[in-house]
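Entry for the shared binder. Reason: the reviewer on the internal report wants the predicted structure included alongside the sequence.
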Amino acid sequence: MRTYVVHCLQILGEAAFKLPPEIRAQYDAVPWSRILGMRHILVHDYFRIDPDIVWAVVEKDLPDLKPKLESMLREMV
């Protein structure tokens, strides 16, 4: 389960990383720097991953992030 969650967070981070900076700037309610920071740790420092931090992100940060990203996607389509 942990590997699956980490992989999903990596995908989210990669998608954010590939967005042009001007798109990220339009949606400043999204914590891009935190998403990109988490991506960096998950991709480059795999042995430093703290499972408690990953789970805290899932429980506390993702519920707030989801509606922001859904709104962004609706506007872009």
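Summary line for the report: The two ends are 32 Å apart (CA to CA).
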